[in-house]
Write a structure and sequence with these properties.
Elements: H1 8-13, H2 15-29, H3 39-52, H4 60-70, H5 80-123
Bound molecules: calcium ion.
C-alpha cells in the first residue's frame, strides 16, 4: 500500500492504517524479533531519535523511565499493545506540530492586514 499521499491525520483516523504504521515501527525497534521491546532495544531507538532531532542523547535513567511508563503490566518489556500507545502519542504530537506551522503564516497575514488598516485610517 502506498502511503505517500496520506497525512498523519489519515493514519490516526484509520485503525487499519494506524496498525500498519505501528506494526512496522514495532518491528524496526524489536531487532531480535522476540515480540517484545526490552530496555536495550528501547535505548537504541531513543538514542537514534535524539540524534535525528539533534537533541541530547537520553540517559540510562530516562530510558528506564520511558520503559516503566509504557510497561503497563510491569513485565519489564514493552509489548506490541503497549507500544501502540506510544506511537499514537507520537503521531498526535506530529499533527499538533503540523498545525502549529500552519498557524504561524496566518498570524503574519493578520498582522500585515492590521498594519494596512491602520495606514488607511491615517490616509483618510
Ligand atoms: Ca525484543
Amino acid at each position: 500500500m502506498s502511503q505517500k499521499n496520506l497525512t498523519i491525520k489519515d493514519i490516526l483516523a484509520s485503525e487499519e492504517l494506524f496498525n500498519d504504521v505501528a506494526k512496522s515501527a514495532f518491528d524496526s525497534v524489536d531487532t531480535d524479533k522476540s515480540g517484545e521491546i526490552d530496555a536495550k532495544e528501547l535505548g537504541k531507538i531513543m538514542k537514534q531519535l535524539a540524534a535525528e532531532t539533534n537533541s541530547e542523547p537520553p540517559s540510562g535513567e530516562e530510558i528506564k523511565e520511558v520503559l516503566e511508563c509504557l510497561d503497563e503490566d510491569k513485565s519489564g518489556k514493552i509489548s506490541y499493545n503497549e507500544f501502540k500507545v506510544l506511537i499514537r502519542e507520537v503521531l498526535q504530537n506530529m499533527v499538533e506540530e503540523e498545525e502549529e506551522k500552519w498557524r504561524e503564516p496566518w498570524k503574519k497575514i493578520r498582522f500585515e492586514q492590521l498594519k494596512l488598516f491602520n495606514l488607511n485610517k491615517k490616509l483618510f
